[in-house]
């Protein structure tokens, strides 16, 4: 029976709805958008930051160095990089409406300081019973240990939880642990998929 639904953040709740600022930024440095995003999200520096081995500031300083910029450019670079991102308020409302019958969790590969930044800028973390940011716990998706940690915090078994992520390796990692996992491609379809699972496997939280 489903007792908890766990969501990823970036690419699911927070999405780049306006690609223009990031496209313009990449063009300034002669890069494709994917090359710029790989520097920020998929580099060894980013992975270390997601594990909490280096700070967010150290990671951005590394990104600046790769672009030939001084550390003093970090703030302007961040501002333009994130300028097209938007919070899906309808999906947040859907999550809030799952409670109190279903436990809700947020599980994100994220750098140090993310909790404070997200809460100050968007203020939606109160939609969740449990919020796990990878840098705070020293492990990251798709490693099994972070899924087990999240399940323990929610006090549910793997088969009692649904996990939603936009990245297939994370979806597959969750399935290996035993969670029901949904690949996020569109907010409407993910809401429908979650509702279908709940309709078939629902058990109210105790």
Automatic annotation (TrEMBL):
<dbReference type="InterPro" id="IPR023214">
    <property type="entry name" value="HAD_sf"/>
</dbReference>
<dbReference type="Pfam" id="PF00702">
    <property type="entry name" value="Hydrolase"/>
</dbReference>
<protein>
    <submittedName>
        <fullName>HAD family phosphatase</fullName>
    </submittedName>
</protein>
<dbReference type="InterPro" id="IPR006439">
    <property type="entry name" value="HAD-SF_hydro_IA"/>
</dbReference>
<dbReference type="InterPro" id="IPR036412">
    <property type="entry name" value="HAD-like_sf"/>
</dbReference>
<dbReference type="InterPro" id="IPR023198">
    <property type="entry name" value="PGP-like_dom2"/>
</dbReference>
């Amino acid at each position: 029976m489903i007792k908890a639904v766990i969501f990823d953040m970036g690419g699911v709740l927070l999405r780049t709805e306006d690609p223009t600022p990031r496209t313009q930024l990449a063009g300034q440095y002669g890069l494709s958008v994917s090359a710029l995003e790989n520097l920020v999200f998929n580099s060894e520096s980013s992975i270390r930051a997601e594990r909490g081995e280096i700070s967010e500031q150290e990671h951005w300083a590394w990104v600046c160095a790769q672009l030939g910029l001084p550390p003093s450019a970090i703030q302007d670079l961040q501002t333009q990089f994130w300028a097209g991102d938007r919070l899906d308020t309808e999906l947040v409302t859907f999550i809030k409406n799952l409670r109190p019958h279903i436990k809700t969790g947020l599980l994100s590969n994220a750098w140090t300081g993310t909790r404070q930044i997200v809460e100050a800028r968007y203020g939606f973390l109160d939609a969740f019973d449990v919020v796990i940011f990878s840098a705070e716990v020293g492990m990251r998706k798709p490693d099994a240990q972070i899924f087990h940690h999240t399940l323990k915090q929610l006090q549910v078994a793997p088969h009692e939880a649904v996990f939603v992520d936009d990245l297939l390796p994370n979806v597959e990692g969750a399935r290996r642990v035993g969670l029901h996992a949904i690949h996020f491609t569109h907010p409407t379809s993910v809401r429908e998929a979650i509702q279908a699972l709940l309709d078939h496997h629902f058990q109210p939280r105790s």
